[in-house]
Prior knowledge:
By secondary structure, the chain is of the alpha+beta class. Helix content is 20%, strand content 31%. The protein has one helix and three strands, in the order E-E-H-E. It starts with 6 loop residues before the first strand and ends in a 6-residue tail after the last strand.
Amino acid sequence: MTTHGSNFWVIGGEFGSMNFHKLVEGSAQVKGPFKTRKEAEDAWREVSEENRHRAGVRFSIVEEPHRGTA
């Protein structure tokens, strides 16, 4: 499914505890923008696979809201 006019981002990093509330300073990563969710999912899989041995690292896909012109 493609949402026209939206960008997708992969965000995350290493968290200080397993409740995943606060990133370790300096560990934040942002990848994107991606024009399709599929492209973002591919990037998410890649970065998640690279860090799978690190239990405190987590990444998510977020969609930037479409900003229409008024």
